[in-house]
Amino acid sequence: MDLADLATPYVDLDVSVAVGNLRALRAALGGAMIHYAVRADPDPVLLQRLCASGASFDVASPAEVEAALGAGALASELVHGNQVARRSDLAAVHALGVRRFVVGSVDDVEKVAATAPGSSVLCLLVTSGEASSWPLARAYGCASSQAVAVLRGAAALGLRPEGVSLVGSPDGESVSWAAQFEVAATVFARLRDVGLAPSVVDIGAGPSADLGAGAVDAALATCFPDARPRLIARSGPDIVADTRAVVSTVLAVSWRGDIRWVHLDAAPGAGLPVPAGAPGRCRIETSADGGPTGPAVLAGPALDAPDGDPADGRAVPASLPLALGDGDIVRLAGPHALTAPTAGLRDVAPVIPLVAG
User: Fold this and answer.
1) Structure confidence by residue, pLDDT tens digits, 233-285
2) The domain containing residue 60 runs over which residues?
3) Chain-centre distance of CA 236, in angstroms?
4) Last residue of a domain, one of 187, 222, 237
5) In sequence order, what are the residues at sequence separation of 6 or more whose Cβ sits closer than 8 angstroms to the Cβ of residue 301?
6) How far apart are alpha carbons 300 and 342 in whole angstroms?
7) CA distance 189 to 185
8) Cis ω on the peptide bond leading into residue 275 (within 30° of 0)?
9) How far apart, in Å, are the Cα atoms of 164 and each of 53, 123, 273?
10) Which runs of consecutive H residues, i.e. helices, occur in 157-302?
C-alpha cells in the first residue's frame, strides 16, 4: 500500500471515480440530466469536474448555490431541494438566479411564491416505495390528490407547476418503476385536464448507479405513451461513493479493560465512519498490515470524547493489526469518509482534501 507522505489528517479524493459514477448513472437512466447534491461533498474541484462532465446540481442553501455557480453551473439549471429553508434563504437563492424549487405542501408553495415569484415547482409525490432501497416515501411528500392540489395552488399564485419529484429510490425493478411512474402519470393527466402542462419527472434522490435503462424506458413508455416527460435525477451519495479515503495517524493505542482503543488524529465526524467506529461501513488499511490482527475500537483524539462504548453497542470493533502503534498510518476508505473540518477540537488539524484524478 502506498500511503502518501503528507501531514495528516487529510481526505484523499479521487474525482475520476465520481465522474465515472456520474456517467454510469446518466447512461443507466437513458441520458437523464443528473443533479449532483452539493451537500454530499462540496469540494470545489469535484464540483468543477462534475459540471464539466455535464452534471447540474441539487442545492439546499445560498452557500451551495454559490459553490455550484463557482463550478460553472447555470443558475437556471439548478434545483433547490430544501423544503425547510428559511424565507431569507429562499429569497437569496432566487436572487442568485435559481428558478426551480421542490415543494411538498401548500405552505411550501406559499413560501416560494412569496420569496421566489415566477419560479417553477416540482411537487414531492409519495408512491408505494416498495422495492425501494431507501424508502423515504413513507416519511414525507404528497399523495397524488394532494399533489394535484399543491400544483394547482402553485399556478394560482403565479408559479409554474413543472412536474413531480418522486420520493424514494427504486432499485431498477420494472414493477417498481411502473408503480412510481403510474402515480406520476395520474397527476400529469389531472393537471392537463385543468389546462396545466407539467413536463418534468424528477426521480428524486438516491437512485443506484446499476439501474438498467431498459426498465426505466419500459415503464415510461407504458405510463406515458403519448408524451414522455423530461427525466431528471438528484443524487449525491451514489456519485461520490468510493471516491474518498481519510488518511490519519495513530496518536495512541490504549487498553481499557479488555478493549483496545486506537485513537486517531481524525476527529469524530471529520473522517471516521458514520457512526464512528463502525468498520463495516468502510475499508480500513494501515501501515502495519501483514501480521496478526485483533479487535480494536477506532476513536478520535480526545480521551474524554470516545466514539462509543462497545458495551452499549455504539462502537463496533474493527479487526486491526496487533502491531499497530502510535505513528502508524490508518486509511479509512469508502462513502462514509467525511470531509468535515475539525476546527475547534483540541490540537487537531482540519481534514484537508487531497484531490486526485
Assistant:
1) 998 878 987 788 888 899 999 998 889 999 988 754 444 444 344 444 578 89
2) 32-237
3) 3
4) 237
5) 251, 263, 264, 265, 267, 345, 346, 347, 348
6) 11
7) 6
8) yes
9) 26, 5, 34
10) 174-193, 213-223, 237-240
